[in-house]
Amino acid sequence: KTKATIFAERIGVKNFSASQGWMEKFGKRHCIKMNRIHGEAGSTDIELLQIDKAAIKEKIEGYSARDIYNFDETALFYAAPPRTTISHQKFSGWKDNKKRLTVGLLCNADGTDKWSDVLMIGHARRPNCFNKNNKKQEASDHGFSMYHYNSNAWMTRSIFHVFLRRFDHAMKAQKRKVLLILDNFSGHIVDYTPTNVELLFLPPNTTSHLQPLDGGIIRAFKAYFKRKQYAKAYQYIGMIQNGNQDKIGPIEKIFEIDQLWAMKWIREAWESVSAKTIENCWNATIFRFIEDEDSEGSSKIIYWS
Question: Given this structure, which CATH class describes domain 52-85+94-291?
Answer without folding.
Answer: alpha beta
